[in-house]
Automatic annotation (TrEMBL):
Family: Belongs to the metallo-dependent hydrolases superfamily. Hydantoinase/dihydropyrimidinase family.
NCBIfam families: D-hydantoinase, PRK13404.1
EC number: 3.5.2.2
Designated gene of the protein: hydA
Region annotated Disordered, chain positions: 448-468
Organism of derivation: Paracoccus hibiscisoli
Cofactors (names): Zn(2+)
PTM characteristics: Carbamylation allows a single lysine to coordinate two divalent metal cations.
Root EC class: hydrolase
GO molecular function list: dihydropyrimidinase activity; metal ion binding
Presence of the UniProt keyword Metal-binding in the record: yes
Protein name per UniProt: Dihydropyrimidinase
Domain Amidohydrolase-related: 50-442
InterPro entries to which the protein is assigned, alphabetical: Amidohydro-rel (IPR006680), Hydantoinase/dihydroPyrase (IPR011778), Metal-dep_hydrolase_composite (IPR011059), Metal_Hydrolase (IPR032466), Metallo-dep_Hydrolases_sf (IPR050378)
Length: 468
């Protein structure tokens, strides 16, 4: 049988379950055959390469306004080009509700920003910063039915923080509508207390951001989020978990059968609080300021254990890029105190190479775990499976061809993001994506995006976190 548009021939197919040699036949943008000696109108020789389900980065910030007027370094065009070059075929950015704004208007705003500009598929999570009766009673239920099946709530940040009563309200809507809530778990009052104390002592350099956002505050908020989820009986994802202490809370919850899922990110296996020192406790440390901040060697070891043993379901970038210049991090206010440094670092393009190299190439995790953490589990958890996240007949032909032997350093000069630095400059990587295909079309090759933006917005189904 033929009629195939394209065959990926001679590669090693890797899924979350298996590794095997096979050709993949693509028709009309979907996987139509998996077998041997396939032929079609077109052919890509994948000899010596791994064929992976396209990366799904489930935590990406693009073109978000900030409360102090600094601009994010990536819009939907540059952010998704960067994602494609890094082996991703789908990203899940946020539609951030500004207080006073209708959530529906907010979503439409982000659609306008994304429309016609995306090189990968995209689908929005909703950030709920103003859970009014209208938002809780009408807008969220309607939006979930339209395929926006995940929300994020914040336990810190002045302009986003919800109090416990509000979090419980959002959890209740999520339970009723079967939406998955992502929680930014850091205790706001503890952070503010530590911030005031550090500022009074004249400790205002970026390094002290890491001290103010103490791991104890993350642990406490993680436990509080878990307790609230238990009270309402709703599944949650604790996102960007930074270290051992919050992990222990997640493991405590799991041991009790609570439906608590967890995400971690590249910064927590590659960076430490010491990176925020910069050159000499100077402003250079601002390039590593993100929340939660990177911790220490002990937490890195704990995170690796959690990536192996299933404590973590997903590995996302938390790409949140600000340039290290006056348009981004380096403002007079930010120089006056760490608390004004925009939080976030770029990473959508380097997420997969970092986990592959530090994880698979160094023997810390299996290929199956790599695929599960970076593609299959994000698809399952966020209602995209089985259209996305696997290599199977009928699935979208979203594929990443990977050269496990290719070795080079991460260098800002080679990246495609809109940021002017990478926090991973000089990191030696073994294993890089060499070609990314979205629905059978090549969207990046050898580290460069190619072609016109073909990405679509995906309406999502219910999270598998609601499965019995
Ligand atoms: O510092 C970070 N991670 N900024 C992005 C916003 C968030 O909390 O995820
Ligand atoms: Zn967050
Ligand atoms: Zn889970
Ligand atoms: Zn984030």
């Amino acid at each position: 049988m033929s009629g195939l548009d394209l065959v990926i021939a001679g590669g090693t197919v890797v899924t979350a379950a298996d590794t095997y040699a096979a050709d993949i036949g693509i028709r009309d943008g979907r996987i139509a055959q998996i077998g041997h000696n396939l032929s079609g109108a077109d052919r890509i020789d994948a000899t010596g390469l791994l064929v992976l389900p396209g990366g799904i980065d489930a935590h990406v910030h693009l073109d978000q306004p900030t409360s102090d007027g600094t601009t994010m370094a990536d819009d939907f065009a540059s952010g998704t080009r960067s994602a494609a070059a890094g082996g991703n075929t789908t990203v899940l950015p946020f539609a951030l509700q500004i207080r006073g704004q209708s959530l529906r208007a907010c979503v439409e705003d982000y659609h306008r920003k994304a429309q016609g500009n995306c090189h990968t598929d995209v689908s929005f999570h909703l950030i709920v910063s103003d859970p009014t009766p209208q938002v809780l009673g009408q807008e969220l239920p309607a939006l979930v039915r339209d395929g926006y099946t995940s929300f994020k709530v914040f336990m810190t940040y002045d302009d986003l923080v919800l109090n416990d009563a509000q979090i419980l309200d959002v959890f209740e809507v999520a339970r009723r509508e079967r939406a998955l809530v992502m929680v930014h778990a850091e205790g706001h009052d503890a952070i503010r207390h530590l911030t005031r104390r550090l500022e009074a002592e004249g400790r205002t350099a970026p390094y002290y951001h890491g001290q103010a956002h103490a791991q104890i505050a993350e642990r406490e908020a993680t436990h509080r989020a878990i307790s609230h989820a238990q009270l309402i009986d709703v599944p949650v994802v604790i996102v960007h978990v930074s270290g051992r202490d919050p992990m222990e809370q997640i493991q405590w919850a799991r041991a009790r059968g609570l439906k608590v899922h967890a995400e971690t990110c590249p910064q927590y296996i590659t960076l430490t609080a010491d990176d925020l020192r910069g050159l000499d406790m100077d402003f250079d440390g601002a390039r590593y300021v993100c929340s939660p901040p990177p911790r220490d060697a002990d937490s890195q070891a704990a995170i690796w254990q959690g990536l192996r043993d299933g404590t973590f379901d997903i590995f996302s970038s938390d790409h949140c890029p600000f340039r290290i210049d006056a348009t981004g991090k380096d403002t007079p206010r930010a120089r006056s105190s760490f608390k004004y440094v925009p939080n976030g670092i770029p990473g959508v393009e380097t997420r997969l190479p970092i986990l592959f190299s530090e994880g698979v190439s160094k023997g810390r995790i299996s290929l199956q775990r790599f695929v599960a953490l970076t593609s299959t589990n994000p698809a399952r958890l966020y209602g995209l499976y089985p259209q996305k996240g696997s290599i199977a007949i009928g699935a979208d032909a979203d594929l990443t061809l990977w050269d496990p032997t290719l070795t080079r350093q991460i260098r800002q000069a080679d990246l495609n993001h809109g940021c002017d630095y990478t926090p991973y400059e000089g990191l030696q990587i073994t294993g890089w994506p060499v070609r990314t295909l979205l629905r059978g079309q090549t969207i990046a090759q050898d580290g460069r995006p190619c072609g016109d933006p073909q990405g679509a917005h995906l309406a999502r189904g219910t999270s598998e976190a609601f499965a019995p």
